[in-house]
Design brief:
alpha+beta; 5 strands; 190 residues; five-stranded mixed sheet
């Protein structure tokens, strides 16, 4: 008689949109499938299932991640934010509002992933993170101007079959401006 077979399932507790969920999952279950099939959070879309289209983008500890490439068991203890968790009650997140204002969608399938990615893009830019097209990458240079080229590069992991890219760039530009105004107002009060 050989050794006992290794377990194939584990209980995990996922912190999704501020709520904890305990599930027993097969070790091979992706975060995407756990969110959609087990927690019924269907805003996160399954596109390519290969990490290439960005439709399944969520925020993990505030950073964007394609959930089809993350195992659910590896997400335990992390803060997971899906599209269902970005609004503040009935008040839309500034990125959501900008997507509405600028028609940053057509069929809407990629929109949840686009919005989650854009939220992270605005934060990354404000923190001074360079992109592949940033001219001056020295930390002391501060955030580069958030040009259309910067936005396109930073959002390049999210594909839109409808071709709403022009509106998406406009929406991210507006959301970044709204966020910068809010940050300045907070600094003025402090």
């Amino acid at each position: 008689m050989g050794p006992a077979p290794a377990p194939t399932h584990s209980a995990v507790t996922l912190n999704v949109n501020g709520e904890k969920y305990t599930l027993t999952v097969d070790h091979r279950t992706t975060l995407l499938d756990a969110l959609r099939e087990r927690l019924d959070l269907t805003g996160t879309k399954k596109g390519c299932d290969q990490g290439q289209c960005g439709a399944c983008t969520v925020l993990l500890d505030g950073r964007r991640a394609v959930s089809c490439l993350h195992l659910a068991v590896a997400a335990e203890g992390r803060e997971i934010t899906t599209i269902e968790g970005v609004a503040d009650g009935e008040r839309l997140h500034p990125v959501q509002q900008a997507f509405l204002d600028f028609d940053g969608y057509q069929c809407g399938y990629c929109t949840p992933g686009q919005i989650c990615s854009a939220i992270a893009v605005v934060e990354e830019h404000a923190a001074g993170w360079p992109s592949a097209v940033t001219d001056d990458v020295r930390p002391e240079a501060g955030p580069p101007p958030l040009t259309a080229e910067e936005i396109r590069e930073r959002m390049s992991g999210n594909l839109c079959r409808c071709g709403a890219y022009v509106s998406i760039v406009q929406a991210v530009t507006r959301a970044a401006a709204v966020q910068a105004e809010a940050d300045e107002a907070t600094e003025a009060v402090a």
